[in-house]
Amino acid sequence: MANPDRPWDWCELSQNPNITWEIVQANPDRPWDWDNLSMNPSITWDIIRANPNKKWCRTRLALRRDIFPDFTSDDEWSWDQLSANPHVTLKAVEANIDKPWNWFSLSKYLDITQEFLRANLRKWWCWGALSRNPHITWEIVQANLGMPWNWTGLSANPSISLETIMANLHDPWNWAYVSMNSGITWKNIQENISLPWNWYFLSHHSSVTLEIIQANPDLPWHYVGLSWNQNLTWEFIRDNSEKDWDWVGLSCNSFGYYHK
């Protein structure tokens, strides 16, 4: 490491992905922050497992993407943090079903199957989060109709198609959340324009492009919602400066930067 005697912020440096394990090993006397090293993506899970006596932070390790599928329960894990890892697998949970998992957190991300849910209905599921979990399909819902499904969550669940919603209009769908459902396409909207869409959320929707808005000027676009749309450009804002833009939304809008 060049210039190790500069006034580095060692806390921030420890989580910088340009810092490799080789650099850490070559500078063992430096004040590395082991909490942040534990989350550094350049330091792989294999490296961590090969160096068990280092001052790794188990809470941070539990949130790493790469601990699955080679997860082992032999280590002293923070089970709350492990449960909150969006990459936790059903295989890991099934193999350690007796461990103190946080079922509220697991409800959000776990790749749940119908068989696993039915075998574990007495667990402390969060039905609001479970209803929005993209691994929950309409088939699972139908097979467990007696469960306390949250219809707002189901309305936003991308695994539930508009075709399913249309076939079950008697159910208490929340159309604001249907309108923000990432599984809904512009074709769905266009072919069913008379449905009770929420145009604030539709204007925000990732499938709604500027070309669509320009080609359909008579639709009730909501410019406050549109202010948050990642497809927006500053040229479009400038050309439509008289619209009711939400400047908080525009200030937060990355304009597709993270999708480039």
Please, could you describe this protein's structure?
The protein contains 20 helices and no strands. The protein has helices spanning 10-14, 21-26, 34-37, 45-50, 58-61, 79-83, 90-95, 103-109, 114-119, 127-132, 138-143, 151-156, 162-167, 175-179, 186-191, 199-204, 210-215, 223-226, 234-239, 247-252. The two termini are 32 Å apart. 21% of the residues are buried. Among the domains are: 32-149, no CATH class; 198-260, no CATH class.
Annotate the secondary structure layout.
Blueprint: H1 10-14, H2 21-26, H3 34-37, H4 45-50, H5 58-61, H6 79-83, H7 90-95, H8 103-109, H9 114-119, H10 127-132, H11 138-143, H12 151-156, H13 162-167, H14 175-179, H15 186-191, H16 199-204, H17 210-215, H18 223-226, H19 234-239, H20 247-252
